[in-house]
Design a protein that fits this description.
- The structure is a single chain.
- By secondary structure, the protein is mainly alpha-helical.
- Helices cover 62% and strands 9% of the residues.
- The chain is globular and about 50 Å long.
């Protein structure tokens, strides 16, 4: 295998070593990554936008709503209700999720720096 493959495996090891992600199913993990990516790009998902992702994630909207509640219960996402219009709920990655993604970023940087040596 090439060195690039080994980098990816190191990344997967770091990712799988985090305890709260071992309890997540792949769809919930993918959805959390989508929430974090939208937040990173500065365009947080509303609940309506999130539920529209059910079909691309190959699950029903009710199943996705349950996964969202689970992620909130696990303190991996936060749901903020708009004061002006209480029907609008916006999803944000929690500090716990942000620290996880920061750890993965550090792992990637560590792998890249060791490759340059």
């Amino acid at each position: 295998m090439t060195d690039a493959h080994h980098q990816y495996f190191h990344f997967l090891i770091a990712k799988s070593s985090h305890d709260f992600f071992t309890r997540l199913d792949p769809t919930s993990e993918k959805f959390l990554e989508i929430v974090a990516l939208h937040n990173f790009k500065g365009s947080n998902l509303t609940m309506m936008e999130a539920l529209a992702l059910a079909k691309p994630l190959s699950i029903s909207q009710s199943t996705l709503a349950k996964r969202i509640r689970l992620l909130q219960k696990m303190k991996l996402i936060e749901i903020l209700v708009d004061d002006a219009d209480r029907r609008i709920k916006t999803l944000y990655p929690s500090k716990k999720s942000s620290s996880y993604f920061f750890m993965l970023s550090q792992q990637i940087a560590k792998i890249n720096s060791s490759r340059l040596r």
